[in-house]
Amino acid sequence: MGKEKQYWLLKTEPGEWSWDDQASNGGISKWDGVKNKQAQKNLKAMKLNDLCFFYHSGANARRVVGAVTVVREWYEVGGEGVVDVKAVGEMRRPLDLKELKGDEGLKGFQLFRQPRLSVVPVSKEVWERVCELGGGFEGDGKEDGGGDDDDGGIEKEVMEAGAIAICVGVEAATMALLATLCCGPTPSSIELLITFAGKLLTTTCIAFYVNLSDLMCLFANLTHTKK
Fold first, then answer.
1. Residue ranges per structural domain of the chain
2. Which stretches make up the EVE domain (predicted)?
């Protein structure tokens, strides 16, 4: 079995390297300039596909703004150890340090214990809690939240109702046509044709009503998602 995914937090001064800088040009860059021995050790421990919070540090900027993933493990450039990271997506709601510190579920966050460390290990529980508070990040596969399932269910019902209407209509028309062809335009065949035509009309109206109601629900759900 492969090693379990690890989580980290990478700090950067937005004036030196911001989220916009990271997200530009394909989102891939070297993460360099790490001098602290413990931070270097953490950087060296990173593995391919590990996820990292992108954290703006400095006065009036301390917040989690996005997520990156490790695309190349530790290597050296000019005697300096670096990793390559790629922007995954911006936080749907950036989280500042004050809010993070005020959450009971983040009491064990290493960010608070070693505030000067630029490469911080993050537990899975803390990662998930931060993502929960911030609504996740773009590219995490949860762009549409739970709305997709609901909309998909309504769309399925609309399709099923339409299919039922078509099947019933075809069956009724076929039976009426066969009766007319076999018996000729007799009073009984005409009566049968009228009966099936009535059933077809009733079923079609019901199916149309169901489709219209479901479509209205679908449009209402789509209108109220991702505001």
1. 7-134, 147-224
2. 6-133
